[in-house]
Amino acid sequence: MLIGAHVSTAGGLDKAIERGAEIGCESIQIFHQSPRMWRPTGYGEEDFAAFREAMEASPVEAVAIHAVYLINCATKEAELRKKSLASLARALRIGDGIGAAGVVLHPGAQKGEPLGPSMKRAAKVIAAALKDSEGCPLLLEQTAGHKGMLGRDFDQTAELIELAGGGERLGLCLDSCHLFVQGYDITDVAHLDQVLDEADRKVGLERLRCVHVNDAAAPLGSCRDRHANVGRGEMGKRGLAAFLSEPRFEGLPATLETPGPSKKGPDRKEVQAAKRLRRAGLKQRGLA
C-alpha cells in the first residue's frame, strides 16, 4: 500500500510532488483544475515532463487525479453536461500525460430525476470522456450512500460500468469513510473481508486501482460524508488499522483526504499516523 495524501498543485504540477515528499507521501492525489470553477488549467507537455522528472527523483511512486466536484455526468442540463464532459476528458488527458493511476470520479447526482435515465446519461458522458483520451483509467468512487447520488452501492457501480461499455479502463475507488457511513461495518477484518468479497462478486476487484483513507465523523449507516482525522472518528484506530492492512489493497495508492490538525488537509503527522496504524494492523493479522 502506497500511503499518501491529497496535495495542492499551486505553482505548477511538479510542485505537488514536492509537497507530497515533504509530508512523507508514497503516493499523492491532485485536482486537475480548481475545484471551485470550470476554468481548465493550461498544462502542456512541458508541465507533464517536469512532473514526471520530479516524480522519478522523489519517494512518490504513484499519482491519482480527483475530478472536480462540479462535474455531474448524470445531469439533464445540456450546458452542465457539456462542461462535465470537457472537464472529465481533460482530467483523463492530464492523467495520460503524467502517468496517473487513474482519475477518480463521483459519477453524478439525480437531482430529482429518475434513476434509470440518470444512470444512462452518466454512462454516456463517461464513455465519451474515455473515447476522448488515450489510456488513463477512470475510477468510479463508491459514494457515501446519500439518496440521489449515483454509485451508492456495488450494484449501481457495476451497472454504471456495464452501461459505459465495460472496458478495462473503467475502475473502482473505495473510500473507508464512504463504506462505513453507507452501512458497511469495515472496522474488523472479518467484516471487511465480507465487503470486499461482495465488491469482487459484483464489480471485480481487478478494477480496484486506489483507495481513500478517511475516518468517519458520522455514525455507521448515517450516509453523511463527513471525514475525520485518522483514528479520531467513528471508525477509530482499530477500524482504520484493519482497512490499512488489507492484503488486497497491497500496492495501491492510499490517499488521505482528512481535515488534518489545522483543517488545511493532511500533514506529515497524519501520514505517519496512517503508516503506524498499517503496521499495527499487519501485526494483528500476523503479516509483520
Question: Which SSEs are present, and which pair or pack?
Answer:
Layout: E1 2-6, H1 13-22, E2 27-31, H2 45-56, E3 62-66, H3 78-98, E4 102-105, H4 115-131, E5 138-141, H5 154-163, E6 170-175, H6 176-182, H7 189-202, E7 208-213, E8 215-216, E9 227-228, H8 236-244, E10 253-256, H9 268-284
Parallel strand pairs: 1-2, 1-10, 2-3, 3-4, 4-5, 5-6, 6-7, 7-10
Antiparallel strand pairs: 8-9
Helix pairs in contact: 1-2, 3-4, 4-5, 8-9
Return the CATH class: Alpha Beta
Structural class: alpha/beta
Mean pLDDT: 97
Distance between the termini: 14 Å
Gross morphology is globular
| Rg on CA atoms, Å | 18 Å
Poorly predicted ranges = none
The number of domains is 1
> How many individual β-strands?
10
The helix fraction, in percent, is: 40-55%
Provide the CATH architecture.
Answer: Alpha-Beta Barrel
Specify the number of helices. Answer: 9
How would you sum up this structure, described in words?
The chain is an alpha/beta fold and 288 residues long. It has one domain: Divalent-metal-dependent TIM barrel enzymes (TIM Barrel, Alpha-Beta Barrel), CATH 3.20.20.150. The chain has 9 helices and 10 strands. The chain has helices at residues 13-22, 45-56, 78-98, 115-131, 154-163, 176-182, 189-202, 236-244, 268-284, and strands at 2-6, 27-31, 62-66, 102-105, 138-141, 170-175, 208-213, 215-216, 227-228, 253-256. The strands form 2 sheets. An 8-stranded parallel beta barrel has the order 1-2-3-4-5-6-7-10, surrounded by 5 helices. A two-stranded antiparallel ribbon has the order 8-9. Helix 3 (78-98) crosses helix 4 (115-131) and helix 4 (115-131) crosses helix 5. The longest helix has 21 residues, at 78-98. The mean pLDDT is 97.
